[in-house]
């Protein structure tokens, strides 16, 4: 989207100068009708710099008036600088002021204040020019906004081609609509325009300038206009030295300097205008690009008239283990009072500073593979919806979003459901329940009362601070987060153990049978098998056994390059045609998985790409090279979780084939056994 | 959430441990094209690779992962002497009045290349510019060799002696504002930096035309009339400089663009350049992809 020209102006109101940034000066001019003075800097300024200048001016302001005496004494110098930068018009003003000493004293003082304020602005601007390496060209000057506006209007009135400016009331209505549509969103300017275009409400006033509506909404305090990449305000609030290195941050994904890339920008004309490389796929977030932050969208009321928890839980038909966990989570998100967030709701908070109160609002649902996590979240979503709030379910993969959609719609027929993923058609629709892929979270800001994060430890969350930031940001300050995982990262496990993170464990599958415990089988590694073109006898026997009992086989290998060759080897040695291999680079992956689901493929050779998500009723799992580096405890547990998913065949077999016993394998076995132990102790298993 | 404190802490540890270990072992960089951590080719395999990697700096091939490197459909054998296509070309047979001498492109415009160009041009991933720019060195080297043979210039002489200027296809100011940069200019800058051929900003685009990719062949041709003009000042300066040289042949100018489809853009730019001076110029087009 085209970058935007920003303007700054200073305004005198009850003897107090403030500097403001605008994208539509006309709107500001009519908005501040009662201001004593409005002076607009004539040249447009790159947005990021304009914001910085306004911040500096306003930060100085307080000090300035305290030290008024000093200021007056150095006034001469300031004004000189001002004269230097203001160009011809400014100098003329200045000289006229000198000459016109005969005017009333009051008038003179006022004008002197003007000059002082302008001088300071000019000084800050020239400072910014030096420090921020920004070149504007010559001819900087200010003009009185209202005069200019009047002149402009006159000119337009005179010429027939002039477009009539939107009437004030219509503009106000448009601003209100825009603010409502932007609620809970964090959008770049282009996205905001698309959103306004898409919403039916704004379509009613199509001729209105969208920027004008947005500017008015921001003046009314309904939305915030920010530069998408800007200095982290938190550092200042935390009292860090102001002159410390100007650390920029992408306000949308939270990335710091190392993710930013500076290039000459043809839009704002700067030599080094930073953009964020981390969230580039969602549109370019840039220093001179506008980011619009809507007001918090969360609306849930804590005083609920809903039926008691037990009663609400009952109709979801959960297993005892599921019900217990869901009840704990329900209790957590319905706690009567909770400490108000200690921070302000400032959006640009830096990720690490936010964490102290964050764990008070998070709940970890640690549920084994096949426990029925989705069903457990239904009562939670219901609780939020009953209180009039909004819920989000975020999952890493698009196919999960698509699969979840009908289930959610069926469970909550009277609420609106929006699905968001790359290329989704419901991009700009508001809904009570939002189903989204994780990247879509970047476009939200304090929007949801309940954020449910599925597969927290999987790609792309894993090692991706941007998505963690986005997940945090999308949750309202008074909202709650539910983290779902079968294999939570070690840090979260530790926190849960220490009692610093509320959590509930679901140690048993929904069918109430124990998890299959992996069997360790000593075999040569895959490379050797492929070289010799033969399978070790014990592995072959185990596979034939599985085939005989009618199971389908998952065969996991470490490398993509081994997939095809292994599939061929299995085909010849087992004398079976229905063998296929697939990997992340296979264009026919979706198709092959479908055929595997349908039973047309008996053995599927694959990599960790299929460690989650694919459920086959009667399946056995063979993990080759289980001692390899790419298979850690979590992925071994996930892969093992592909077996015994259905209640018809709960005892599938899992075999770790490896040359060596590694810590990961032992930990995975330990993990699974422990879950079974807990389930047995709690009496969750189906009585035989 | 609190988990994230630890998360970040661990990130830090991993980061620093990574840098320390990185000093000891072979570095595992992220591939600039696909963004994944993947191994680059080993030294042995690199040297075993055929041209064009020979004309690129070794750091180029080393910084890309092997998958991305394998995905690049280099144009090795030029079939059409004019437009540099890898196949026989009906366009050039049809055309009679080319204002440029020939075009050479680095790669075929395959699907992965289309995606790569989209990442750079439309998504705005400017970090790709150095790599795409460097890829142009391969066709430039070929072109230079061909030309120096024809001109009878010693093969080893610097490229700046053979090429008098390098310029690029301009974009309209609207497009520049929207995109933030001119993709062809950035490529030209990269080539100029690598070869020391002087970069001249010779052209401007007069009006804003619709995106080329939505138009048919004939529509493109029609549209191109008087779309470009010469920057009089830069042109004058360039000609002055050129005429001051001793050997006063026709100036040889390299015209850089990202993609050559029908050649109408290159043709229009070349025409505009030719009009600027009474004596003819030799304009050679250097494009990143040939579709």
From TrEMBL, chain A:
One Pfam family matching this protein: DEAD
Entry GO MF terms: 3'-5' DNA helicase activity; ATP binding; DNA binding
Keyword tRNA processing included in the entry's annotation: no
Residue ranges of every copy of the Helicase ATP-binding domain listed in the record: 354-506
GO biological process: DNA recombination; DNA replication initiation; double-strand break repair
Keywords: ATP-binding, DNA-binding, Nucleotide-binding
InterPro entries: DEAD/DEAH_box_helicase_dom (IPR011545), Helicase_ATP-bd (IPR014001), Helicase_C-like (IPR001650), P-loop_NTPase (IPR027417)
Helicase C-terminal domain residues: 538-688
Protein name according to UniProt: Competence protein ComFA
Species lineage: Bacteria, Bacillati, Bacillota, Bacilli, Bacillales
Automatic annotation (TrEMBL), chain B:
Family, similarity comment: Belongs to the ComF/GntX family.
Protein name per UniProt: ComF family protein
Species whose genome carries this gene: Paenibacillus algorifonticola
Taxonomic lineage from the root: Bacteria, Bacillati, Bacillota, Bacilli, Bacillales
């Amino acid at each position: 989207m085209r970058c935007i020209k920003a303007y700054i102006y200073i305004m005198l109101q009850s003897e107090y100068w403030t500097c403001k940034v605008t994208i539509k000066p006309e709107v500001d001019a009519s908005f501040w009708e009662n201001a004593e003075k409005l002076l607009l800097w004539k040249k447009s300024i790159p947005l990021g710099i304009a914001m910085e200048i306004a911040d500096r001016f306003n930060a100085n302001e307080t000090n300035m008036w305290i030290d008024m005496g000093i200021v007056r004494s150095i006034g001469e110098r300031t004004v000189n600088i001002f004269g230097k930068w203001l160009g011809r018009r400014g100098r003329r003003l200045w000289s006229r002021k000198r000459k016109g000493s005969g005017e009333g004293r009051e008038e003179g003082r006022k004008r002197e204040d003007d000059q002082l304020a302008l001088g300071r602005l000019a000084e800050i601007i020239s400072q910014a020019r030096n420090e921020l390496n920004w070149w504007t060209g010559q001819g900087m000057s200010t003009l009185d906004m209202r005069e200019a506006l009047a002149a402009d209007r006159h000119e337009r009135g005179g010429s027939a081609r002039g477009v009539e400016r939107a009437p004030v009331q219509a503009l106000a209505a448009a601003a209100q609509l825009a603010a409502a549509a932007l609620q809970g969103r964090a959008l770049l300017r282009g996205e905001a325009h698309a959103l306004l275009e898409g919403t039916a409400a704004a379509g009613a006033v199509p001729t209105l300038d969208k920027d004008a509506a947005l500017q008015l909404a921001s003046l009314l305090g309904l939305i915030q206009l920010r530069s998408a990449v800007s200095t982290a305000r938190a550092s200042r609030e935390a009292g860090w030295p102001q002159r410390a290195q100007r650390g920029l941050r992408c306000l949308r994904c939270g990335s710091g300097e190392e993710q930013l890339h500076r290039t000459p920008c043809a839009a704002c004309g700067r030599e080094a205008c930073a953009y964020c490389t981390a969230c580039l796929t969602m549109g370019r977030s840039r220093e001179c690009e506008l980011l619009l932050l809507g007001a918090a969208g969360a609306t849930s009321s804590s005083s609920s008239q809903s039926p008691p928890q037990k009663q609400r839980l009952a109709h979801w038909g959960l297993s005892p283990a599921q019900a217990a966990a869901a009840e704990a989570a329900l209790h957590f998100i319905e706690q009567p009072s909770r400490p108000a967030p200690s921070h302000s709701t400032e959006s640009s908070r830096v990720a690490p500073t936010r964490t102290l109160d964050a764990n008070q609002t998070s709940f970890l649902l640690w549920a084994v593979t096949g426990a029925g996590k989705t069903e457990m979240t239904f009562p939670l979503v219901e609780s939020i919806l009953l209180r009039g709030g909004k819920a989000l379910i975020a999952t890493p993969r698009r196919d999960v979003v698509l699969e979840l959609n009908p289930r959610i719609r069926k469970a909550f027929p009277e609420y609106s459901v929006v699905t968001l993923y790359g290329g989704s058609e419901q991009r700009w629709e508001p809904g009570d329940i939002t189903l989204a892929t994780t990247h879509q979270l970047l476009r939200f800001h304090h929007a949801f009362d309940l954020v449910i994060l599925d597969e927290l430890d999987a790609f792309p969350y894993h090692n991706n601070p941007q998505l963690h930031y986005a997940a945090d940001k999308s949750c309202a300050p008074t909202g709650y987060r539910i983290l779902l995982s079968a294999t939570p990262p070690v840090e979260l496990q530790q926190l849960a153990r220490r009692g610093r993170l509320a959590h509930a464990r679901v140690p048993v599958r929904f069918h109430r049978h124990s998890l299959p415990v992996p069997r360790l089988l000593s075999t040569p590694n895959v490379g050797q098998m492929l070289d010799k073109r033969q399978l070790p006898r014990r592995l072959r026997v185990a596979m034939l056994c599985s085939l005989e009992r009618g199971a389908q086989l998952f065969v996991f290998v470490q490398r993509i390059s081994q997939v095809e060759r292994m599939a061929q080897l299995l085909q010849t040695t087992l004398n079976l045609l229905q063998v296929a291999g697939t990997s992340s680079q296979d264009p026919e992956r979706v198709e092959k998985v479908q055929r595997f689901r349908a039973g047309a493929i008996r053995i599927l050779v694959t990599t960790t790409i299929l460690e989650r998500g694919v459920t086959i009723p009667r399946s056995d799992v063979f993990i080759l090279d289980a001692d390899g580096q790419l298979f850690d405890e979590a992925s071994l547990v996930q892969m093992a979780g592909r077996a015994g998913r259905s209640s018809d065949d709960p005892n599938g077999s899992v075999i770790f084939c490896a040359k060596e016993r590694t810590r990961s394998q032992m930990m995975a076995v330990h993990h699974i056994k422990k879950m079974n132990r807990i389930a047995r102790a709690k009496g969750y298993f189906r009585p035989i | 959430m609190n988990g994230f404190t630890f998360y970040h802490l661990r990130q830090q540890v991993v980061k620093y441990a990574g840098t320390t270990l990185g000093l000891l072992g072979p570095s595992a960089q992220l591939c600039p094209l696909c963004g994944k951590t993947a191994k680059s080719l080993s030294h042995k395999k690199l040297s075993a690779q055929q041209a064009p990697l020979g004309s690129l700096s070794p750091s180029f091939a080393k910084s890309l992962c092997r998958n991305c490197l394998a995905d690049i459909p280099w144009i090795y054998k030029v079939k059409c002497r004019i437009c540099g296509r890898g196949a026989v070309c009906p366009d050039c047979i049809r055309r009679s009045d080319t204002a440029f001498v020939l075009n050479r492109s680095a790669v075929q415009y395959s699907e992965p290349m289309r995606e790569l160009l989209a990442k750079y041009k439309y998504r705005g991933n400017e970090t790709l510019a150095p790599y795409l720019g460097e890829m142009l060195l391969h066709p430039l080297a070929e072109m230079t060799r061909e030309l120096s043979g024809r001109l009878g210039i010693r093969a080893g002489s610097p490229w700046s002696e053979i090429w008098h200027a390098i310029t690029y296809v301009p974009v309209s100011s609207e497009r520049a504002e929207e995109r933030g940069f001119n993709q062809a200019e950035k490529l030209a800058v990269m080539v100029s930096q690598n070869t020391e051929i002087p970069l001249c900003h010779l052209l401007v685009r007069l009006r804003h035309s619709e995106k080329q990719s939505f138009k048919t062949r004939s529509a493109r041709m029609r549209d191109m009339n008087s779309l470009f003009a010469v920057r009089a000042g830069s042109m004058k300066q360039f000609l002055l400089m050129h005429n001051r040289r001793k050997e006063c042949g026709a100036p040889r100018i390299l015209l850089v663009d990202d993609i050559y489809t029908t050649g109408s853009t290159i043709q229009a730019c070349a025409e505009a350049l030719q009009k600027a001076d009474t004596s003819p110029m030799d304009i050679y087009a250097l494009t990143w992809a040939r579709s």
